[in-house]
Design brief:
heterodimer, A: alpha+beta, Arc Repressor Mutant, subunit A, 3 domains, 39% helix, B: Histone, subunit A, 3 helices, 40% helix, flat
């Protein structure tokens, strides 16, 4: 059943949205947060675990130093204060994704707190999001629900558990309530998560791939009448795992809340699940009170002291901040403000940087990522980066065009083949037989045929009406199914007719 | 007055997915109340000037370098599992959480 919604514009006329985000970032350390088992994505189930990850009796966790350093770097990049001393806590819940029956996390003394992030919006303005805290914890295992009709948890007969992800270091970044976003709330939601992702990727502390769950967002939304100070009741939409989904989920929840409130009913505080297929949320479980987790200090782990010397040495390692980097890249690439903003909003700045680094010009990189690739992404209703085109493919396509092996039209067909999994561009050219016909002999016979078919046009050209050559070129392209270099065809036609261009 | 009552025990049992009969709840509420009351005497002894202790050993920053060490095979990991399938632990479907 789909919930009723109010149109976004009407919702905005009546209500003031307040947002809040919890973003989980998986760190890309070699090992887990509390064990020396490998932190690797995509391996065979339960091959990256040891006794600590399985929560077997008698084991002792030991904190990963690099994970602490990465957490401090994230805190610094988010303009947070770093706690001089902090501890770990046990967060209890009983669910098979956590074999210990508690998640080791931090409770009332997070490693980083009181920060902010200036988020750039598409109109070029900046919106400051206040950061409440960033704390260290561990990821849970992965459940696959089996049986039942839908493959979803409802109706499942049993679940299968892979603990490879259990114990992977996580940093959870929690914002303060975000007020004043107004109708820009959905856009801000997307821009905030994009900014966090960009920061952790830039720091090198996370692979930051949302499609792999390296960055996951829980979005809190509440509405209140304009002028009211007290927040409305919030819903928390869990695991919204793409930038577009974050924007859409916040928009949907605003519209759903507005419909509920507008009809005189009240919002239930609960978790919601986002469904990409229907672009809507459904009710999850009622939000449990924090007390239900029965947090208590982790007796197996000792406090972490972040000395000023340690923090400052980490601060000195911080890379160029993304906003500074953007200014530099725009200058390097010579894009206008509008061109550059479009690139950023399309989420392909990193791809263009990699494409340029791999040898394409900035203009060529933009032509592909903002042209053909963006067009296809729009048709497929996905982010351009999710389409599966890599910078290496773009560079190879460009090289093939520049060498004269293919033309722009053929390059699009080659891209079809690459996306269909037929191999590299060169392999697709080979297997699909897409190379431009550059064999003059083959071209010559096509030209002779075309000239014979249109003798009046041939006469015009001989008489000096060079522009009429287009009709013959068209005939040749038709015969060669577009696989000829039009410039070379033109040259050959004029040579055949003995006309100087 | 006891710091833990029958409703608390019922609530905890529900959170822990433990089924308890009425008799068990009555008995456990009584037993746990005695234990909690006994422990409570510690907080009566510790004054406001004594910070909470989470660990008796005065150590900090016991850290490990980020180097891969001991790891189990899937067979070893699953060796104690009541049920397994396809290299994974097989567990009953639990619906209340996400």
């Amino acid at each position: 059943m789909t919930d009723a919604t109010l149109s976004f514009d009407v919702a905005m006329e009546k209500f003031d949205p307040v947002l809040g985000f919890e973003v989980h970032v998986e760190l890309n350390t070699a090992t887990k947060m509390f064990s020396s088992a490998p932190n690797v994505f995509g391996d065979e189930p339960n091959t990256n675990v040891n006794e600590v990850d399985l929560g077997l009796p008698g084991v002792l966790p030991v904190v990963n130093k690099k994970a602490v350093e990465s957490s401090i770097k994230i805190g610094l990049a988010l303009n947070c204060k770093i706690a001089e001393s902090c501890t770990f806590a046990r967060k209890h819940y009983f669910y098979p994704d956590t074999p210990k029956n508690f998640q080791t996390s931090q409770y009332d003394d997070p490693i980083a707190y009181d920060g902010f992030l200036d988020v750039e919006l598409s109109d070029g303005s900046t919106f400051r999001v206040e950061i409440e805290r960033a704390h260290m914890e561990e990821d849970a295992g992965k459940l696959t629900h089996m049986g039942g009709a839908t493959g979803r948890i409802q109706g499942a007969d049993f679940s299968l558990v892979d603990y490879n992800r259990a114990g992977v270091p996580l940093v959870e970044i929690v914002t303060k309530p975000i007020e004043g976003a107004g109708s820009r709330a959905p856009e801000l939601a997307k821009a905030y998560v994009a900014a966090v992702r960009e920061i952790v990727k830039n720091l090198g502390v996370s692979d930051a791939k949302m499609e792999r769950g390296n960055v996951r967002c829980d979005a809190n939304v509440s509405l209140r009448p304009y002028g009211q100070e007290k927040f409305g009741t919030r819903s928390e939409t869990k695991n919204v795992n793409s930038l577009r989904a974050v924007e859409n989920a916040v928009r949907f929840e605003i519209q759903r809340h507005a419909a509920v409130l507008n009809s005189g009913n009240t919002i239930v505080q609960e978790t919601r699940h986002w469904h990409e297929d229907t672009k809507s949320t459904t009710s999850g479980r009622p939000k449990s009170d924090a007390d239900d987790y029965r947090y208590f200090p982790e007796p197996d782990l000792l406090p972490i002291l972040a000395t000023p010397a340690w923090v400052e040495s980490l601060r000195a390692e911080l890379p160029e901040p993304p906003a500074t980097r953007r200014k530099r890249l725009q200058a390097d690439w010579g894009y206008t403000d509008l061109e550059f903003r479009d690139v950023v909003n399309a989420g392909v700045m990193d791809e263009i940087e990699e494409t340029v680094a791999a040898g394409a010009t900035a203009a060529v990189a933009r032509k592909w990522w903002m042209g053909e690739i963006a067009r296809r992404a729009k048709l497929a209703d996905v982010d351009p980066v999710a389409l599966g085109v890599t910078p290496a493919v773009v560079v190879e396509l460009d090289a093939l065009i520049r060498s004269g092996a293919i033309n722009d039209k053929l390059a699009r067909e080659v891209l079809d083949g690459v996306l269909a999994g037929e191999g590299t561009p060169a392999e697709v050219v080979q297997t699909r037989g897409l190379a431009v016909v550059s064999d003059d002999g083959a071209l010559q016979s096509a030209i002779d045929t075309a000239l014979a078919a249109q003798p009046d046009v041939a006469d015009k050209i001989r008489a000096g009406k060079i522009q009429a050559v287009g009709a013959i070129v068209g005939g040749v392209m038709k015969v060669t199914k577009g696989q000829a270099d039009a410039g070379r065809v033109r040259e050959l036609i004029l040579k055949t007719l003995g006309v100087e261009a | 007055m006891a710091a833990i009552n029958r409703d608390d025990v019922a609530h905890l049992a529900q959170l822990a997915h433990i089924e308890m009969s009425a008799d068990e709840l009555d008995r456990m509420a009584g037993e746990l109340a005695v234990i909690v009351d006994s422990v409570k005497s510690v907080s009566e002894v510790a004054g406001a000037d004594v910070p909470a202790t989470s660990h008796p050993i005065p150590l900090t920053n016991v850290l490990r370098e980020d180097v891969v060490g001991h790891v189990l095979t899937a067979e070893q990991a699953l060796s104690g599992a009541p049920d397994a399938q396809g290299g994974r632990f097989r567990v009953p479907a639990i619906l209340e959480e996400d």
